[in-house]
Amino acid sequence: MFFSSLVPLVLAAVTVANPVKRQLAQVITNCANDNDAALTFDDGPWQYQTDIVNTLNDAGAKGTFFLNGNNYGCIYDQDLVDGLKYAYSQGHQLASHTWSHSDLTTLTWDQIHDEMWRVEEALQKIVGATPAFMRPPYGNYNDQVLSASYVRGQSVVYWSFDSGDSTGTPPDESNGMYDGLVGEHPGGIIALNHETYDTTAYQVLPHAIQDLQSAGYNLVTVAECMGMEPYQNFQDPGERDDSWTC
Question: What is 34-233's CATH number?
Answer without folding.
Answer: 3.20.20.370
